[in-house]
Write a structure and sequence with these properties.
45% of the residues lie in helices and 8% in strands. By secondary structure, the chain is α/β, with parallel strands linked by helices. The chain folds into 2 domains: 220 residues, NADH:ubiquinone oxidoreductase-like, 20kDa subunit (Rossmann fold, 3-Layer(aba) Sandwich), CATH 3.40.50.700; 85 residues, Cytochrome-c3 Hydrogenase, Chain A, domain 2, CATH 4.10.480.10.
């Protein structure tokens, strides 16, 4: 066990071996790994070094920090706040002024073995970045400097990923997400309003254990967390299949826990693992509390996924009653119809080929049989001719 490692820091903080193993098993589950990987994660964490974390907050409400500080699961919060070396986070600093900005000076020389960068909030570029300053400098410049030299950069929350509320239509700060900070794709995006602290902890554990970034989709979101529709994991999905929907807030269907699809739930359009990780020690999430998904894990959800309590509008203006979910259903049905037609065509073609093959084999067998028969000889014919001639001579 490394004395300066993650496990040693956990032990010094009072974590028992049993709690540490439970934490490792929970991280295996969060990473969509079999339970057998729990001991492997525990072994790897025992040898993993502590890594400094630089947390930069831009233009946002600070909801991701609040979610982290209020995480009911202490192991996730302890990992980020105590076990890792959180060297800079403005909400947690005990100093102010120039002393508060000093940890951001000379990052390369201060952290020769590297550090992780966490970006929260959007980064405005309007008015030369004056809408959000850190130590008198535009936040976008500070974030770019920190993220460029990091071993791993995480954009936490929808504002950090694509600009969120500050970048919604009508804003004047020209805010954007991590795309305003980094031109390359060397980062991991954890959208959500807020992002779940358990997902953040799992990303860092994976980095410590595997020493490589998690597999992501084209939007840089970890597939383990954003690879499945909320609709497919929702506990109210059976009611959707049986056509049982709440039609008004507080009606009989809502009281019975029926599907909230017709009240605007965006679960069929949103990729996230909210039904699995939940919040508050996995006790509850939006739908369990009686409110539909608002699609906060989707790109530009402030402008693209509203109104929150109505279905998404039709993608085709000349068909106002057509919704995106109906389009998806029609596409699935169309693909299914093409597949059925293709299957029928292949069956007919297969039967025709079999019939042709049978006829070809029968013809070949007939030709082979005729070739093996013995042809008649000329001697009997000659004998018959002789007899006929003799008979004729005798008559004369």
């Amino acid at each position: 066990m490394r004395e300066d490692g993650v496990y040693a820091a956990m032990v010094r903080r009072g974590m028992t071996r049993r709690t540490f193993l439970r934490f490792s098993a929970a991280m295996a589950a969060a990473l969509s790994l079999p339970a057998a990987y729990g001991p492997r994660i525990a072994k790897a964490l025992e040898a993993a070094p502590r890594v400094p974390v630089i947390w930069i907050r831009g233009q946002a409400c600070g909801g991701n920090t609040e979610a982290l500080l209020r995480a009911a699961n202490p192991t996730a919060a302890n990992l980020l706040l105590e076990v890792l070396s959180l060297d800079y986070h403005e909400e947690l600093l005990a100093v102010a002024g120039a002393d508060a900005a000093s940890p951001l000076a000379g990052l390369a020389s201060r952290y020769p073995n590297g550090y992780y960068a966490v970006l929260e909030g959007s980064f405005p570029t309007g008015a030369a970045g004056a809408y959000c300053l850190i130590g008198g400098r535009p936040a976008v410049d500070v974030a770019r400097e920190v993220a460029t030299g990091a071993l791993l950069t995480l954009a936490v929350g929808s504002c950090a990923v694509d600009g969120g509320a500050p970048a919604a239509p009508g804003g004047i700060t020209e805010a954007g997400g991590i795309g305003k900070v980094l031109t390359g794709g060397n980062f991991i995006a954890l959208p959500g309003c807020p992002a779940n602290p358990s997902n953040l902890a799992a990303v860092i554990v994976h980095q410590l254990v595997a020493k490589e970034t998690m597999p992501t989709d084209l939007a840089h979101r970890p597939l383990a967390f954003y690879g499945n529709l909320i609709h497919n994991q929702c506990e109210r999905r059976p009611h959707f299949e049986f056509g049982e929907f709440a039609l008004e807030w507080g009606d009989q269907g809502a009281q019975r826990g029926w599907c909230l699809y017709k009240l605007g739930c965006k679960g069929p359009e949103t990729m996230a693992n909210c039904p699995d990780v939940r919040y508050g020690e996995k006790i509850s999430w939006n739908v369990s509390s009686g409110v539909g998904c608002i699609g906060c894990h989707s790109p530009s959800f402030w402008g693209a996924m509203g109104p929150a309590y109505r279905r998404l509008p039709s993608p085709l203006p000349f068909l106002p009653n057509l919704t995106t979910d109906l389009v998806g259903g029609a596409m699935v049905a169309g693909i299914g119809g093409v597949a059925v037609a293709h299957g029928v065509g292949m069956t007919i073609r297969f039967k025709r080929y079999k019939a042709q093959d049978r006829r070809a084999k029968a013809k070949a067998a007939a030709e082979a049989a005729s070739a093996t028969e013995t042809p008649p000889t000329a001697e009997p014919e000659a004998a018959a001719g002789t007899e006929t001639a003799a008979a004729g001579t005798g008559e004369r």
